[in-house]
Write a structure and sequence with these properties.
TIM Barrel, 9 strands, about 50% helix
């Protein structure tokens, strides 16, 4: 099972030092919920089931964290954005709000302790921290400011807005910089050791580096500073594959930058490993879903060996582990992390 020194090891990695052993994570929430035997719609709306499923998965698969990403809708459904999903289908945003200053001026800061499913997440964080203490890194979740804008207005109106109304985007980014700072701090107060800071809609898959620097960079930097002031760590994830984008992300002041599965972790290490702790990036589809356990073990071994060189590295999958990944493949991935995560 996870161990008492994991937070110290994480902090050594964040400081670009060599840990006693490399912490082993997996973006495995969908898989874990399946293995716990509950419906995802029950898991993401019931704090006891959420916490129990995470604790069960940690004990069974030996993860060093509780990853409470849950879904991308928690902050946005309370603002009036539509949500679709149910059963074992993760909720997704839809029926976005109009891209207009009328929408912007009507935005109100949520009551994080009372509205929507926000209290569910806060209570689940507390339950896990109370149960496992500092033997795992309890990791909550926030959407980064620019991705938050796309989850409010929709992706196409936001990206068109770079040309049609850039000031509205910048003003909305400022709102979400404040909101996500406060939301993350509330999770830290509940017991979160870190925040999973998702920003896939600001990645090199969708925008160029100049656009990232103009619209995304400052909000990330401010949120990371605010979390750090409260004792929290920021794990930034944009499923990034572009080295120029990763170099920009490395300068935001986040605790760690998570690399997506579309890039070699050794290349990431060479590019930004002397600037920021890196995390990743076992391929969840090509490796975990499609290969045999011995192949998963070998792929995971290679990721670990490349990533851990000279410290400053956290072992993880590069993206969400699919629900239907064979159990033996998760076991093989974690085993490789354990077997080759010492120095």
């Amino acid at each position: 099972m996870a161990y008492q020194g994991v937070l110290n090891d994480i902090d050594k990695c964040i400081r670009l030092e060599v840990p006693d052993r490399v912490p082993v994570f997996a973006l495995s929430e969908e898989f874990d919920v399946r293995m716990s035997g509950v419906m995802y719609s029950d898991y993401n709306s019931n704090s006891k089931q959420l916490a129990d499923s995470q604790i069960q998965a940690i004990k069974k698969y030996d993860y060093d964290w509780a990853w409470l990403q849950v879904d991308d809708c928690i902050e946005f459904e309370v603002l009036g954005v539509g949500v679709k999903g149910g059963g074992n289908i993760l909720p997704a945003t839809c029926d976005y709000l109009p891209f207009s200053y009328s929408t912007f001026h009507n935005l109100k800061m949520p009551d994080f302790k009372k509205e929507g499913r926000m209290p569910v997440l806060l209570d689940a964080i507390k339950r896990i921290k109370d149960a496992l203490g500092d033997t795992v890194c309890v990791t909550g979740r926030c959407a980064a400011p620019l991705s938050s804008v796309t989850l409010l207005y929709g992706m196409m109106p936001t990206y068109m807005g770079f040309f049609d109304n850039p000031q509205l985007i910048k003003d909305t980014v400022k709102f979400f910089t404040e909101m996500q700072s406060l939301w993350g701090i509330e999770q830290i107060k509940a017991g979160a050791d870190a925040l999973w800071f998702g920003d896939c809609n600001a990645s090199g898959h969708l925008i160029n580096v100049n656009t990232f620097m103009e619209y995304a960079f400052e909000g990330i930097k401010i949120c990371a500073e605010n979390y750090r002031a409260q004792g929290g760590r920021t794990f930034y994830h944009a499923s990034e594959h572009s080295i120029p984008h990763l170099k920009a992300m490395a300068k935001t002041g986040v605790s760690a930058v998570s690399a997506g599965p579309g890039v070699d972790i050794g290349e990431v290490k060479a590019a930004i490993g002397d600037t920021v702790c890196i995390m990743g990036n076992v391929n969840p589809i090509e490796t975990l879903l499609e290969k045999k356990p011995d192949q998963v073990y070998e792929d995971s071994k290679q990721v670990m060996l490349k990533g851990k060189t000279n410290g400053g590295y956290l072992f993880n999958s590069g993206e969400m582990v699919p629900r239907d990944v064979p159990e033996e493949n998760i076991i093989a991935m974690v085993k490789a992390g354990r077997d080759f995560g010492t120095y």
